[in-house]
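This protein record is not my work; I was only asked to verify it. Would you go through it and say whether the fold makes sense for this chain? Here is the record exactly as it was handed to me.
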Amino acid sequence: MPSLSVGIYCEATDWMILKAFVCRTLQKKPSGIEVIETPSKGGSFATFAGALPTFLHKYYKQCVSLVVVCTDNDGKIDLTRPGAPSEDPKHPRHARHAGQRLEACRHCVLEEKVKDARPALRYLPPKDGMHWPIVVTVPVEAIESWLLTARALVTQGDKYMRAEDLPGGSRLKTAFYGRPFVTTPDVISKALPVINDPALDLSDLAAYSPSFRLFVESLQAADLS
């Protein structure tokens, strides 16, 4: 029987990737985690963020142990080109302004949504939503940047070590999957083997990817007792 239930609110097939990273970070077998996934149906970030409180109530009623909220950052600037800024100013990176809230930061917006929703998540005692583990993560610029760097760490000669310097969009998906759209079989055959490769050290991935480091640190700090 699963020892941990996880609600994942994310984009499309990203829940499978997130589950694999949760398993590795918490050192649990996939069979030890029950996932209730709620992939968003596309649309704007505002729509994704606006629907978050509804799904927090859903997970709360289902008494899940942990919630993971994830959406891509979607910055459009190629930081590898000469003279490029340190980030897309329209899509600021949360790791670059720790302790400071920015209106344009997706991570900050989602954390604020969680904060505002918590007081209403107290109607099923003894489960207190004020202390319920809810992890917000915003991969920079997309979750494929984590995958590309992970693959580079375990594949000699792979060129995508600093994938967070690349812009979001179809380029990242094409670089990892070989095409600009992703299916469940793609994740199973290409993404999961990389994540589960024993040669992959998550601390190395966190060193190259600040957004992944924030995700891992939040998971490790979560009170799952």
In short: The chain is about 40% helix and 10% strand. The first helix runs from residue 14 to 26. The longest strand covers residues 4-11.
